[in-house]
Structures are given as structure tokens and as C-alpha cells.
Amino acid sequence: MKHDVAKVMAICLLLGACAKAPEVVAEKAQKPKSAYLVYVTNEGSGDLTVIDPGEPNAIATIPLGKRPRGIHALNGQIFVALSGSPAAPPGVDESTLPPPDKSADGIGVFDIAQGKVVRKLFGGSDPEQFAFSKDGKVMFVANEDAAGLSVIDVADGKVLSSVPTGEEPEGVTVSPDGTRVYVTSENEGTVTVVDTKTAKSLKKIKVGRRPRSVAVTPDGARAFVTNENDAALTVLDLGRMINVHTIPVGEGLKPMGTAMTQDGKTLYVSTGRGKKVLVIDTATEKITASIEAGQRPWGLTLSPDERLLFTANGPSNDVSVIDLATNTVVRKVKAGDKPWGVIAVAR
Fold first, then answer.
1. What is the pLDDT of residues 99-120, one digit of tens each?
2. Angle (CA) 40 44 47, round 5°
């Protein structure tokens, strides 16, 4: 009898273990796959950090080249502006810097499926930021040390034309209808309006000091320009191509990068050394919230579902993940040295 009881207990234990095993395996198999990945350019370390929002740490680091900054995605590829010119932040005597390595200039092309850089396009001298034409066939690249905008054929990398923009061009934004491109000049405090068909300058609009980026509303009617050294945004009437008015954002804040929701109702603005991200209602042009983001947030991007915002924080070498339901940083992910640009791409 004792032996029979022992046998029954052993069988029960075995059956119990077998019954539980599939549950454990099922739990692991059912972990949802993130719908998108986040890509971060690291200006200091010359590489690309890949972040899966469902994982606590970065999942990959890919070498790119010197000083990767501006970043965009197109047709399964990530395009990154690379520059061999030494970094020259405000206050630095450029005559003391080493000569530029022009061979390092270009637009690196990272193929997402292959997980590697597959080619480098010539992007003019010292490329920083850029944008694509509406059909994706042409690239508009700000050449920081050449005071101009290069118009480049994406397929073969040929420079089709160059447009003077003023010294130290940086922000580049194409209008929603694809007919115009807007380029900031940090030194001149202007936005140059360029006709995308003729590659001719239509007008220079005076804005504030050290304009960094341009965010255009989906209807193409207005633009918000970040003026780093004025602690303000300039609002442009794009139909009339005029400066309408200025939105002060607060003393000590350095407005830099922008990200706008798809419906155009909300604009997020990073403030650099101000450490915050501002939330702006584009209809009222009022600041509705201020989020403590991290050390010098610069590049920022919305998740495809617009539930999260990611900021690249240069001095702390990390990326803040902000929950937009609560406007709070829920975690930080380690990146490379001096993260600069950031973009979220659906899988």
C-alpha cells in the first residue's frame, strides 16, 4: 500500500510539473514585440544607438563615422549626417581647432534589415541637418561651414544645385505640400525660404538670435522657429512669408529641437541647458506644460503612437523616455557619447 501511495504521489508530482511547464514557456513566448525602434546619433562616439522601448537597455550600437548629427528615416533606411569638421561650440576660438577632415563628410546610410551601413552619399561640406523632398528622391542638406543648402539626388548622390542661406545653416524643414524648404541661419538670425522645384531662394525672413529648427503645421500655414539665444519662438505666416510675432518661453531656457503631433495641435520644444521640454498648444500658442527632461535635451522625437517622447541628452549620454499621459520621465536609457539626434521608426 505504501508503495502504491508513493507511486500515485510521484505521478501527481510529475503531471503537475508537466502541466506547469507549458505555462512558463507560453509566458516567455507571449512577450509582445515592440512596434518600433528608436535610433540615436552620438556625435562624440561616432555611432548609432538602437533602443527597443520594451527593453531596459539599448539593444545595439553601430559605428557610423565622425560627428553623426541629423537623422531621418526613408524606405527602410536610416540617413545620418556625418562631418569631419571639429566641433566648435559657442565661445570657442575656431583658429585653435584642428583642420577639418573633409573625407569624413557625407550622409551615412544604415540599412535596417541588414543592420549595417551600406553606403555614404556626398552631402556637401560639413552637413548638419537635412530633409527629404515629398517623393523622397531629393535631399536638402544644410552645409554648416559653407553657408548654403545642397540639393542632392538620393539615388546617385550627385549635387544638383546649391543655394546660399546665410552663415551656419542648421534647421531644414520641407513644407507639407513639398513646394518649399525652410532653412535657419544661426549667425544671421534668418530663415531662408527656398522653392524646391527651382532651387532658388524666395525670401529671407528675419527671426531671432541663433535659430535652430523650424516646425511647420500640417496645413502649411504657420511655422514655429526656435531661437536659442532669445529664449523665444518666432511664429511665421508662411503664406505671406513674414514674421508674425514672438512667444517668450522663459528666462534661462534655450529652445532648440522640435517635435509636432501629426494633427498639429501640440508642439514639443527641447530647451538645451534649460533641461526642460515645453508643451505648446499651437492653436492658442500658449505653453501648457513644462517637463523636466534631463541634461541639455536637444534632439527629440515622438513614438509612432504619440504616447512617448524621447530626448537625446548630450552631457549625460542618455535618452529620456517621457510618458506624455503624465508628462514625466519614466526612465533613461544609456546611449553613446554626446547623443544628438533621435528618431523613432515603426518596424
1. 999 999 999 999 999 999 999 9
2. 45
- Cβ atoms of 184 and 169 within 8 Å: the answer is yes
In Å, what is the CA distance from 213 to each residue of 77, 111, 225, 285? 23, 26, 6, 17
Is 170 within 8 Å of 143 (Cβ atoms)? no
| Mean pLDDT of the chain, nearest integer | 92
Reduce the DSSP state of residue 4 to 3 states and report it: helix
Please determine, for residue 8, whether its predicted confidence score (pLDDT) is greater than 50: no
For residue 24, pLDDT over 60 is answered with: no
Predicted local distance difference test score (pLDDT) of residue 93: 76
Question: How many angstroms separate the CA atoms of 217 and 172, rounded?
Answer: 14
Dist. CA 126–CA 308, nearest whole Å = 32
Domain that holds residue 307: 250-347
CA 76 to the chain's CA centroid: 16
The answer to whether 138 touches 154, Cβ cutoff 8 Å, is yes
Query: 37 and 319 in contact (C-beta within 8 Å)?
Result: no
146 found inside a domain: no
Q: Is the dihedral of CA 344, 249, 292, 314 positive or negative?
A: positive
Number of domains in the chain: 1
pLDDT band at 31; cut points 50, 70, 90: low
Q: Is residue 125 in some structural domain? A: no
Residue 261 forms part of a structural domain: yes
Q: Which of the four pLDDT bands, split at 50, 70 and 90, describes residue 30? A: low
Domain of residue 325, CATH code:
2.120.10.30
Listed residue (216, 211, 223) closest to 185, CA to CA: 211
Separation CA 246–CA 255 (nearest Å): 13
Instruction: Tell me the one-letter amino acid at 260.
Output: M
Torsion, Cα 67 53 131 282, to 10 degrees, reads -120
- The candidate with the shortest Cα–Cα distance to 312, out of 279, 281, 277, is 277
Is 343 within the bounds of a domain? yes
pLDDT value at position 2? Answer: 45
